[in-house]
Amino acid sequence: MLKFLFKGLIRDKSRSLLPILVVALGVMMTVLLQSILGGFLGESIETTANFTTGHLKVMTRAYSDNSSQIPNDLAMVGVDTLKKSLQKQFPGITWAERIQFGGLIDAPDSNGHTRSQGNVLGMGISLLKSDEEINRIDLRPRLVSGKFPSKPGEILLSDDLFHKMNLKLGDKVTLLSSGMYGDMAMYNFYVSGTLRFGINVLDRGMMIADIADVRQALNMENAAGEILGFFTGERYDNKLAKSAAKTFNARFAGNKDKFAPVMLPLAEMNDMGFMVAYSESIQTFIVMIFIIAMALVLWNAGLIGGLRRYGEFGLRLAIGENKHEIYKTLIAESFLVGAVGSVIGVIVGLLLSWYFQVVGINFGDSLKDSTFLMPSIMRAHINLTTFYIGFVPGIFSTVIGSMLAGIGIYKRQTANLFKELEG
Amino acid sequence: MKSIKISMMFLLVSTILCAQNYPSGKTILDKVDNNMSAKTRVLTASMEVGTERTKRTMVSKTYGEGDHKGYTEYLAPAREKGTKMLKLENQLWIYSPATDRTIQISGHMLRQSVMGSDMSYEDMMNDKPLLEQYKALVTGSEMIDGRKCWVVTLTAIIADVNYFTRKMWVDTERYVPLKEELFAKSGKLLKRITFTNVQKVEGRWYPMSFLYKDMLKEGPGTKMTIQEIKLDTPIPESYFNLGKLK
After folding, report:
1. Which has more confidence, A313 or A64?
2. Minimal Cα distance from B109: which residue of A?
3. Where are the beta strands (DSSP E) in A298-394?
């Protein structure tokens, strides 16, 4: 039966070409949009995760309540033990200690007195032990001059601040900040390289140092403001993150100490909840839009086809074919059209998605004055869903369109058929 | 109705009469100034800073001349020992022996806390006479620790002030402030200072201990205790020189 219908479709191109093209176009758009939007949203989420929140973040309760102030006086102590326990409890997650801090960077003149100053937003990460954090934050393409710190005491500064302060690579600068116990912290560093992020707030005064140096500078021995957790080799999974946080927090539920650790999933930090929810629902949203839009187009195509095949249906009814049978064959035909159109649409959509995944779209100029973290090059992201998502609107819309257009078959009166055919 | 009018009249007259018994705000501040201001002062003090986690005690020696010159050297604990601060007019420098650097503190950094205490550099720097910055009005009298005090409300008359309003409780006999509250323009209480252990030092009444509490911070506040004080003693000019910091 299907073979017969398929042959009919191939031979009568006017019956199949336009619907197949419409379906292929719609499916291609669905695939492309899913991969691009999913990729963009996913990359924005991952950038925030890598830079600030992690997929999961462990802090003290008190630090978490005031996290916008970066309150290092409320930081965690005994971090090595806590990290070991996290690694044991969640072996699939990579944990990284971070210290964020604010302060003033001061460059001396030849007498050791203040020559130039600048405010910095600092971050202590593991720079010397391994390249893991450098790769995670994607610092390599952001290095404008110099090199990454190779020995204790070296730092990276934002290129704008570096020039504003008239510094040279290798220059000594002094950080003035507050220690963990409220004490005044002054510590000398040497600038080994400069960075450009393309994000105004970071380019104004970012400083990155090895976490061991920051601990030394801020009197934070075996302490850290935050321990960030990252799903190994995977993108953020909200269900997994929520479940891990629930399990971890249950361990400390009975502990009323404000310095007890608390774990938060990314969706509960930095107003990321909306972004995560949007990213989760975007696929359904795209599919729904395309099902409705394409069903409307294909309904009309079906109506036009129905008019063209008015005589054919009349003849088939006149020679005794059941109305249900005709309706069924019409739907089966549309299923075939949908399937063929979907395959073509998915292939073209995947090829385009692959291009945007490899090359990406550069938004660098538009994000020059951005005040929030966004990757400058947005890329599409092909995942398992990209391969099958197009079939949903492709087949559904064709079938729905035909079902709507084919209703006319039931309105035909057998008594009038011969009169109609004579005409 | 008539009785209400009489009562209101009585209340008004008695308020005016009472107000007339209060000295003027300027008189009180002048007397506080006369009592407490010395040409020079050298004092050793301990500063106990309470944070959420711990309590730190620092000992420092300060040399001051008038309101515009000040030099402080931290003597303890080990982490702060050798840290020096120099204030000349409206400029402030800090020297840290660990970095062997002298850094000038300016701009928003002046709003940061001094050595983690509840006091900011701005608090430390503010040396203009109060009457040049505020109009003072005595608004009542209250008892503080069994001492009768004038309640003086100071309202800013210039824009460049750290606190728009201040409320000061001044001992009516010794002309020493026993309590002070510092408010933002919105009326929010920002800091509270309680002065205790008032002693006579070289003919002047002086609070030897005070508790400085930043009301926006958690914790018990910063307790300053003067261990030794000398007034109007000669201080070599070299103390108020950048070279003294290193």
Report:
1. A64
2. A104
3. 361-362, 377-378
**pLDDT at position B61:** 95
Please identify which residue in the block is written with the tokens 């944990």. Answer: A95
3-state secondary structure of A377: strand
Give B99: exposed, middle or buried? Use CB within 10 Å, 0-12, 13-18, 19+: buried
Task: Return all residues near A207 (Cβ < 8 A) that are at least 6 apart.
Answer: A105, A120, A121, A122, A123, A155, A156, A157, A158, A161, A175
Q: Which residue, A395, A318, A298, is CA-closest to A27?
A: A395
- Report helix, strand and coil shares of chain B as percent, to nearest 5: 20, 50, 30
Domain check: are A67 and A214 in the same one? yes
Interface membership of A110 toward B (CB under 8 Å): no
Count of CB atoms situated within 10 Å of the CB of A71: 19
Pick A162 or A33 by higher pLDDT: A162
Of A119, A179, A186, the CB nearest to B99: A186
The two tokens of residue A355 are 């291009």
The pLDDT of residue A55 is: 95
CB atoms B104 and A114 under 8 Å = yes
Q: Is residue B10 part of a domain?
A: no
Least CB–CB distance from A181: residue in B51, B100, B246: B51
Q: Report the C-alpha gap between A368 and A243 in whole angstroms.
A: 37
* Domain housing B52: 24-244
Residues in chain B within 8 Å Cβ distance of A189: none
Residues A10 and A96 occupy one common structural domain: no
For the residues A282-289, what does the mean pLDDT come to?
Answer: 77
Class of residue B137 by CB neighbours under 10 A (exposed 0-12, middle 13-18, buried 19+): middle
Chain B residues in contact with A183 (beta carbon < 8 A): 56, 79-80, 115-116
Residues of B with Cβ-Cβ distance to A114 under 8 angstroms? 93, 102-104
Question: CB of A376 within 8 A of CB of A363?
Answer: yes
| Inter-axis angle of helices A13-48 and A391-405, nearest 10 | 140
Instruction: Indicate the pTM of the whole model.
Output: 0.75
Give the span between the Cα atoms of A212 and A193, in whole angstroms: 18
Residue A112 CA: distances (Å) to CA of A115, A154, A177, B97, B219: 8, 19, 18, 12, 36
Using DSSP bridges, classify how beta strands A114-125 and A206-210 pair: parallel, antiparallel or unpaired.
parallel
Sign of the Cα torsion B132, B134, B138, B143 reads negative
Instruction: Report the CATH number at residue B150.
Output: 2.50.20.10
DSSP B115-166: TTSS-BHHHHH--S-HHHHEEEEEEEEEEETTEEEEEEEEEESSS--S-SEE
Whether the ipTM is more than 0.90: the answer is no
| Complete DSSP assignment for A181-234 | TS-EEEEEEEEEEEE--S-HHHHTTEEEEEHHHHHHHTT-TTEESEEEEEETTS
Residue A309 has pLDDT above 80, yes or no: no
B4 within domain boundaries: no
Average the pLDDT over each of B22-26, B27-31, B57-61, B105-109 and give the range with the smallest value.
B105-109
- pLDDT (tens digit, 9 = 90+) per residue, A335-392? 888 888 889 999 999 999 999 999 888 776 665 555 556 666 778 888 888 888 888 8
The helix, strand and coil proportions of chain A, stated in percent and rounded to the nearest 5, come to: 55, 20, 25
Q: Which domain holds residue A83?
A: 56-235
Domain count, chain A: 2
Instruction: DSSP letter for A51, please.
Output: I
Structure tokens at A238: 């909200």
